[in-house]
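User: Teach me something about this protein's shape.
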Amino acid sequence: MAPCRLKSEPFELDGVLSRIESLFSQEAQRRQIEFTMETDGVKHLSLDGDRVRFEQVMMNLLANAMLFTGEHHQLRCEIRRREQKKRKVILEVVVTCEGKRIPEDLMDKVFLPFEMVSQLEERSSFHGGLGLVVTHNLVHILGGLIKADNQSGEYPLYHGTALYVSPASGK
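Assistant: First, the predicted structure itself:
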């Protein structure tokens, strides 16, 4: 398999997030899920970076969370500007879903390929896929970190930090 190459191109974060919000709002309505996306801290942010890979991370995280969020439950996504150093911005993405709880003994395996899937297949209470493995790899390629935990011991929380992208020049 060829290594993934990052592209660096200017893009408006508002446009990317607006498309994602529109897509997932429609799907959430169809599934009777309450979906919210908070982007106040990153409004009007012009960036240089790999827009396609950033979109893939967002889509994978939200699609995975939506799969495990039951009817009449909440799915929440927050995108924050954590800090800025010189021309680098750290974006933080936090996805919380009121879905099936990830068993504690599997929490450290959520982003591992095959081992996680095979262990989950044996349990009827939680089924996983390879979407989080791909997401984990993409986040690392983008220079970031990602983790999962059961927020308050009840619901899965996916927390991606340090997604570095440079502000577009001249803006």
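Now, about its shape. The first helix runs from residue 13 to 31. The helical segments are 13-31, 51-67, 115-121, 131-141. If you'd like, I can walk through any region in more detail.
User: That's plenty for now, thanks!
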